């Protein structure tokens, strides 16, 4: 699997955000999915011992956003996010996110995602619409990504070409 770049200050993936989740994202090119793993601590709880739904929503949103951005070759922002919480996720549970681009309307992209544990039990499922941002803005954002953890710098897909040069350096 290939690592995706991170934005240091991001709440979900930022390595330098002191209150962030520090989630690393990976591309599974064989399955054409985006994946991550996350273990919640007590600081991420809503009720005692239960992962806060807002934290789950953030992970689901960013994962589906990456599925659209990576596989559509365009950086995207959230337009619509629909989630269904199936059971409480407990603090300390290893959670796996899996997301996939499912539709390209020509104007927006749709993705599906799920959050499950190691045994395959589903906790949250969702779908979202993501709208591409302009090439100009996309290129300007590329300068803020942290490419340090990326194992491969030769992605077949690059986001508007903005990240291509970064990966080839």
Protein described:
- Strand 6 and strand 7 form a beta hairpin.
- The chain has 3 helices and 9 strands.
- A 7-stranded antiparallel beta sheet has the order 1-3-4-6-7-8-5, with helices on one face. The protein has a two-stranded antiparallel ribbon with strand order 2-9.
- It is of the alpha+beta class and 169 residues long.
- The protein has a single domain (2-158), classed as Thiol Ester Dehydrase, Chain A (Roll).
- Helices cover 20% and strands 34% of the residues.
- The longest helix is centred in the middle third of the chain and has 20 residues, at 53-72.
- Residues 151-169 have low confidence and may be disordered.
Summarize the structure.
With 169 residues, the protein is α+β, with helices and mostly antiparallel strands.
List the helices and strands and how they pair.
Elements: E1 2-3, E2 6-7, E3 26-28, E4 33-39, H1 53-72, E5 76-85, E6 94-104, E7 109-117, E8 122-132, H2 135-142, E9 145-146, H3 164-168
Antiparallel strand pairs: 1-3, 2-9, 3-4, 4-6, 5-8, 6-7, 7-8
